[in-house]
Amino acid sequence: MNNKQRIIKTIKIIAYLFSYMMVTVVAFNYGYMFYAVKFDGASASPSVSFIFAIPFIIAILACIILIKIINKKMKD
Predict the structure, then answer these.
(1) What span, in angstroms and rounded, lies between the C-alpha atoms of 59 and 65?
(2) What are phi and psi of 42, to 5 degrees?
(3) Would the CA dihedral through 18, 23, 24, 28 be positive or negative?
(4) Distance CA 40, CA 30 (A)
(5) Separation between Cα atoms, residue 45 and residue 29, nearest integer Å
(6) pTM
(7) If you ran DSSP here, which 8-state letter would residue 40 be given?
(8) What is the pLDDT of residues 8-58, one digit of tens each?
(9) What is the 3-state secondary structure (H, E, C) of 3-72?
(10) How many helices (H) and strands (E) does the chain have?
(11) Rounded to whole angstroms, how far apart are CA atoms 30 and 45?
């Protein structure tokens, strides 16, 4: 395995971890907001928790773009 393949594999693992963190954060906040609306009288709907996915989506897209740039610059 050469250096380019290691870098790409590491970036793919980071993107994979970002996706799992995104699901965890959004699910936790959705559950919290659902019960906050139900019992505490919060005014925002639980779907507001999907806003927390935006930074993770941006990071995943940055990883994908970085992989494409590395593939293009380091042609074997």
Answers:
(1) 10
(2) -65, 150
(3) positive
(4) 14
(5) 11
(6) 0.84
(7) I
(8) 999 999 999 999 999 999 999 999 999 988 898 888 888 899 999 999 999
(9) HHHHHHHHHHHHHHHHHHHHHHHHHHHHHHHHHHHHHHCCCCCHHHHHHHHHHHHHHHHHHHHHHHHHHH
(10) 2, 0
(11) 9
